[in-house]
Amino acid sequence: MDSMSMGSCINAKKLCLADSTCSGPFLDLESCFPFTASAPPKPENQEGCLEAAQQLQNNSLGSCRCQWRMKNQVTCLAIYWTIHSTYGLGDYDLGGSPYKEIVISRPLKFNHLDLFESGSVSQSSPDLCLKSTTLCTLNDRCNKLRLAYGEVCSVARCQPLKCQQELRVFFEQVAEHYAQALLFCPCDDGDDVCGARRRNTIAPSCASPTRDPPNCLMLWETCLQDVLCRSRLADFQMHCHTDPLGTCMGKQPRRCLKAYMGLIGTVMTPNYISNLSADVAVSCSCRGSGNQLEECKRIQESFSSNPCLTKAIKAQMQFHRQLLSKSSSTAVSQDSFSSYSVDTDQVNNPARRLRPWVPTISLGSLTLVLLLHPVLGHL
After folding, report:
1. How far apart are CA 330 and CA 128, in angstroms?
2. What's the distance, CA 291 to chain centroid?
3. How far apart are CA 375 and CA 379, in angstroms?
4. How many helices and strands, by DSSP H and E, does the chain display?
5. Are strands 103-104 and 270-272 parallel, antiparallel or unpaired?
6. Measuring CA to CA, which of 116, 296, 341, 353 is 20 to 30 A from 347?
7. pTM of the prediction?
C-alpha cells in the first residue's frame, strides 16, 4: 500500500471488512448505491440506508479522508461518499470536503529573469499573461503537460471528454505556481488580447462550449453523479463559501483558489465570462427551470457572485502583477498569500460546515497563448 493510502478511506474500508460489527452496516450501505457512490438511495431503502450510515459514523470510516494526488483517488472517494451518502439529499450542502487538509507552506517562486534572458518576451511588454505562458513554456514539465491537453483541446482535434481529462491531469500534476500564474495573470483594462489568452487557458471552445449551454440544474445533477466532480464541488463549497452576512467561512484565500482549480476539467468547469472581465461563471443557463428557477439561480450565483473567490482572485492577480512586472528584479513577498495550514477536522467543527447554500464563487478559467506550437496557437 502506498503511503498516501495509509489512513485513507481505502485502508479504513479494509479494517472495517475485517470487523463483523462494521462490515455488516458497510455492506448494507454499499448496496444502497449499486451503480455509483453519489446516487441517492431509492426512497424505499432510504430509512435503512440512513440507519446504516449512522452506525458507521463512530467508526474509522466515518472520519476517513482522501488525498488530492493519491493513487486510486476515485476508489477512495467512492468509499467516502458511500459513508457520507446522506449528505446532499434535497439541498445544496454536501457536508464538507472528502479531502484531507493540506499545508501550503512554500511561496511562489519563478526564475522570472529567464523570460528576458531567453529573448521570448520583452521586459517592457505589458502583457503579463504572455509572460506567465512563457514561464510555463520554459519549464519542461509545465510545457509537456500543456502540450498534452492542447493536442486534444484544439478546435481542429476537439475531443471534449479527453480534453477535460487532460485538463485535470495538467492542474493536478503541474507545479501549482505555474497553474496559478496562467489562471490568475492580470490584464490591463480593455486589453482584449491579454484577456483572450487568460480565458483560453482551459480551451473553453472544447472543454466547456457556451453555445446552447445546458440548464444549471441538469449540470449540477450530472456533477453529483460523478464521484470526482462531486468531491471537487464539496471541496469548493467548503473553502469558498460565505455565511449569510457575506463573511468568508474559509480562512485561507489560496485554499479557495486550489478548490476552484480542482473543478477545472469537470462538468462544473468555470471560466472568465469574457476577455475583458475577471468575473467567472459556469457555462449553463436557467432557461426552462420552471418552479426551480430560484434553485437554478442559486447555482449560477455560487460562481458569479462569490465574494470569497473574487477576493482571492484579485489578491492573486495583484501578486502576479508585482511578480511579473518589469520592476520585478527582487523577491516579492506574498502578504495575504503567505504560508498557512488548515484545520484537519472539518466534520467536528460546525463553524466550518456549510449552512444551507449560500452563493459562492466568481472566477474564471483562462489563458493559453501558445508560443511556438501550431496546435496550441489555435485553441
Report:
1. 17
2. 30
3. 7
4. 16, 4
5. unpaired
6. 296
7. 0.80
Q: What is the DSSP letter of 242?
A: B
The C-alpha atoms of residue 153 and residue 111 are separated, in whole angstroms, by 29
Q: Using CA atoms, how far apart are residues 260 and 362, in angstroms rounded to an integer?
A: 9
Closest C-alpha among 179, 183, 198, 202 to residue 108: 179
Taking phi first (over 0 means left), then psi (-120 to 50 degrees means alpha), and beta for anything else, what does residue 198 get? alpha
DSSP string, 271-320: EESSTT---EEES-B-TT-GGGHHHHHHHHHHHHS-HHHHHHHHHHHHHH
Q: Which amino acid would we find at residue 221?
A: E
Return the minimum-mean-pLDDT range out of 128-137, 231-240, 244-253, 346-355.
346-355
What are the tens digits of pLDDT across the range 358-378?
333 232 332 332 333 333 444
Give the whole-angstrom CA distance, residue 345 versus residue 161. 34
DSSP letters, 243-269, are: -TTS-B-SS-HHHHHHHHHHTTTSTT-
